[in-house]
Amino acid sequence: MLQLGVRAHDLGKHTLLSLAEALQEKNIKYIQLAPKKVFTDTDISYGKFSPAFAEHIGETLRSHGVHVPILGCYINPIHQDRDVRKREIDTFKENLKYAKFMGAGMVGTETGYWGKEGIYDPFTYTEGAYKIFLETMKELADYAEKLGVMIGVEAVTVHTLYSPEMMMKFLEDINSPNVQVIFDPVNLINAKNHENQGEMIDTVMKLYGERVAAIHLKDCRIEENTVVAEVIGDGILDYQKLFSVLKAKKPFIHMFTEAMKPENYEKVWSFLHETYDNV
Questions:
Q1: Residue 260 has pLDDT above 80, yes or no
Q2: Contact, 201 vs 161, CB < 8 A?
């Protein structure tokens, strides 16, 4: 069975109630929720969370048939400004603290890059950057273990964990049962490996498939040696290969569409269900 959901902020800005109603109208039962990116009526800036506040968000969504398996708190764990990095660590800890009150068992993040916003520095790929990342994540993993909450880590070709092999190195180094993987296959596609993406998917499952806790779904095309976003089903991602592997090795895993525009919802939803059912 395809356990399909969405990133809530791909539906645009909403009040808490209007988001719940929009999801119910589309019969969407699962979301990855990044509150700061969605809510227009709910201030969740640092220090505003409380157990009751988190419960209010979770109960409002559940009353409309919506569950939050993952709370999105995407920080830059190797931010070059130590003060900014400290604030982001504190914010992530706050999300870990209140996730369960909202009904979420996992808080997700990418692995960050060195440089100013949107400008990538080659230092990102060095052992020095990795050490900063590992130090940050060890602090967060210790906190997550105390709370009994999972951290979901997402690799990206332009971030600190830029390949399946780097993700495996990290999982071995962090050595925490509370650190799991959010696998986005498009994040690991580049101009050099896109024709061998099936091999990449197999490598992920061979190295750390047992640690993959959720899937992100999007699509892309290669244009002038650059990965460009594309509507799901219209790009180059081999969904038949992906779904056949997931059916065999990760049945019932939550999958969340990413960067999906509301006007494409029906088309994308139909494509994903049909493809999954027929592999």
A1: yes
A2: no
The single-letter code of the amino acid at 113 is Y
115, containing H or E segment: none
Sole residue written with tokens 């525009």: 261
Q: Are 28 and 6 in contact (CB under 8 A)?
A: yes
Q: How many residues does the chain have?
A: 279
Per-residue b/e over 54-79, b at no fewer than 16 CB within 10 Å? Answer: beebbebbeebebbbbbbbbebbbbb
CA–CA dist 232, 214 (Å, integer): 18
User: Pairing state of beta strands 254-257 and 212-217?
Assistant: parallel
Q: List Cβ neighbours of 1 (8 Å cut-off, separation of 6 or more).
A: 251, 252
Name the helix (H) or strand (E) containing 163.
none
pLDDT in tens, 27-84: 999 999 999 899 998 888 888 889 999 999 999 999 999 999 999 999 999 999 999 9
Q: What angle do CA 32, 36, 4 make, to 5 degrees?
A: 15
Say how far apart CA 140 and CA 152 lie, in whole Å: 11
Contacts of 48 (CB under 8 A, 6+ apart): none
- Alpha carbon distance 19, 57 (integer Å): 11
